[in-house]
Write a structure and sequence with these properties.
By secondary structure, the chain is mainly alpha-helical. Among the domains are: 39 residues; 79 residues, no CATH class. Helix content is 29%, strand content 2%. It has five helices and two strands; from the N terminus they run H-H-H-E-E-H-H. The protein starts with a helix and ends with a helix.
Length: 177
C-alpha cells in the first residue's frame, strides 16, 4: 500500500474531523493504526477537532451518597496567602523527648601480654577484637577465649552487639544536642 495524494488528503480530512487513528485506518483500508499515526506525525498534523461520534463514552453523573438524598458536597475553602508565603509551612516543631540511655559503664579491659594475639595466632575460639593502631608495632588482638559462634569474648560482645533500642535512644540524644 502506498500513500497516494488522494489517500493523504482523505487522511488529513478525517484527522481534522477528529476521528481516531483506528477509525481512519478502517476508512482507508489496507493500513494499520500505527501507519496512520506515523503518517500524521510525518505530515506534521497537530491539534484536531473533538470527535462528536458515539464512540466517546458519556460520563455518568456523580451521586453524593449511596442513599442519594444527601446534599452535594461543597469544596473546603483554602486558606488565603499573601505575597511569597504560598509555600511557607506553618508547622510547629515536635517536642524533643530526651531519652536517657541506661548504659552500664564498661570498664576498660586489660589484656595480659600472655593472652594477646597476633593475626597469625588467632583461632576460631579466640577474641578478634583489635586493640591499638594496626600501623604500629604495639597492635594486637584481644586473644581471650570467645564463645562459640561469636568472634569476641564476653566483654567485647557487650561493646560490639548493642540492643537496637539502646542504639536508637543514643541516636535521638545525639541528634538533639
Amino acid at each position: 500500500m502506498s500513500w497516494t495524494n488522494e489517500r493523504v488528503e482523505l487522511l488529513k480530512k478525517l484527522w481534522g474531523e477528529g476521528l481516531s487513528a483506528s477509525q481512519i485506518a478502517g476508512e482507508l483500508g489496507g493500513v494499520t493504526r500505527n501507519a496512520v499515526i506515523g503518517k500524521v506525525h510525518r505530515l506534521g498534523l497537530s491539534g484536531r477537532a473533538k470527535s462528536s461520534t458515539a464512540s466517546a463514552k458519556p460520563r455518568r453523573p456523580r451521586t453524593a451518597s449511596p442513599a442519594g438524598n444527601a446534599a452535594p458536597k461543597r469544596p473546603t475553602p483554602q486558606p488565603q496567602t499573601h505575597g511569597a508565603t504560598a509555600l511557607k509551612a506553618d508547622i510547629a516543631p515536635a517536642p524533643v523527648i530526651e531519652a536517657k540511655p541506661q548504659v552500664e559503664p564498661i570498664a576498660e579491659l586489660v589484656v595480659p601480654i600472655s593472652q594477646r594475639a597476633s593475626i597469625l595466632t588467632l583461632t576460631e575460639r579466640t577474641c578478634k577484637w583489635p586493640i591499638g593502631d594496626p600501623a604500629t608495632d604495639d597492635f594486637y588482638f584481644c586473644g581471650r577465649q570467645s564463645d562459640a559462634g561469636v568472634p569476641y569474648c564476653a566483654h567485647h560482645c557487650k561493646i560490639a552487639y548493642q540492643p537496637v533500642a539502646d542504639r536508637r535512644a543514643r541516636k535521638v540524644v545525639a541528634q538533639a544536642s
